[in-house]
């Protein structure tokens, strides 16, 4: 009898990669096409049904695109995979570097870099800024004073200038690496062409069966397992019904419109394009906002990586400048929160202006920018296999500077990173000072990405050792002390205080009376999550979506914790998703808490904006986490909700209200990351192999004791 074709669940097992398949299954995935047919059918290829052969071909396509499925599988054969230096985390970093050139700061090439740009694109590059600039000349002047202006000239090193410019020029000359042609797959529910496999046939499936499908969607993993790789489904997200296809098309158009050009080349995307609202800094390219835009360009079929490369190089260039606020100089590695391109209408010259936090409301440096930059650099390399960019001495140096900021010795007794309020996506006072999960998860993700990309030369080796130690300590700390589920909550509830010495159970001397009432009702018997913050005598029990999803993608959360987090999302769907995905934080601060924690912030009133508002951009993070944990049906359900309103409402930045029913009080319309977040979510659901660009495998070197309390059910 012919062997059954693999199901999508197996694909998840591969993407999860923490659970190596048995050898026979690996055979399916890493042989040549004919080997697959032979190996899988004892009686030969002819015994495979057409459908099975199609699926096998599709899996090969996937292998072609993603050479990084798992370490175990990796060894089994793919030469392409072996050639991917980004798979060498934990063994060797990239070797054989070109000569390292110490150069600083990075500067723009004075002229000629736009020589190949067509006048049309040149003109286009200026249009978006020109109108508003001419009419707001005065505003611009004062703005320029408060921002750090990047002007040309003042080169300290000719070599440096040439080196960075060479990279910049290569994309201009059309030398951007040609990414591997992408093959797309689309999953659809079609009972007529069901392909399934019994659990007993595939040992690695037994673990998957412990993952629960979403009951409310009424769809099992099997019914989601249909794979169609025909060209009509290679659709850049437009593989749905007519309405959703129109929405996807609109999203691509809007994304394109948000492009910001510098010297004729696209370098980023505007935060928002709302003609009806005050611009403030929404006409800038935010580093964190560009991340989903960049990913959309990388996941596109065919990919458009140039904008990502240009963005990475331009922001690196901005990092190289001395950053001063009043008389204080910021750390060398700080990346900007945002930048914009200004046109000097007299000299017809473009100038870059960057904000490192000096202009931001509350004057906080964006701790997350550097992390997003490193993670995007890896995504870019994964997509394009352009390792030359990563190996550039300037890029290596930029990474090291970011990491030096975070790995320097201090008075810390925890491996977590101490932060000011407002240093990340939640860029206003919201009581996240201390050790917020969002930053810790991004920190961990960036450390592991950098670990794959750093070269040992020029101090790299020592840094790599520090990274390794920190990765181990950080994951232990977060998995142990941030994890909360029913069992753990009960333990904390019964904590004794004033325990002295290292044998203390209540390590941070948390007073049980400080546990807020809401958390007892919120905590389901099934599920759990990483809480918002842990520091002496303080646990912030609030749920933050970004930190939890990034913890899943980076494998900061254990496999069992990741599953439990998804369980919680299902169990608390009304609270965390409601009518519009997704709550940035739950619950909102109200009354006295709102007054003391936010400082009476009128923008962050209860269930609005950062204080319990619903942010469509977060859809991509949930989708990625769902795919990684083998629960795509949860993401599909959220995407359906978004499709009911987001486009009709003009792609708002956020929604207000307990269930997210109302367009946010001060929400910008045509918010770019709401647009790109939707696109990536669609592309990942249709082609789960896209996940490899933003997901890491489990770090097998971290020998952490697995936490039994992370199981979804109490014993
Ligand atoms: C808001 C958000 C911030 C985002 C910026 C630009 O300030 O809080 O996270 O980067 O808008 O969209």
TrEMBL record:
Keyword field contains Cytoplasm: no
Coiled-coil annotated spans: none
Keyword Hydrolase: yes
Signal peptide region: none
Biased composition regions of type Polar residues, renumbered to the chain: 68-77
GO biological process annotation, one example: sucrose catabolic process
Keywords: Carbohydrate metabolism, Glycosidase, Hydrolase
Similarity section: Belongs to the glycosyl hydrolase 100 family.
Record protein name field: Alkaline/neutral invertase
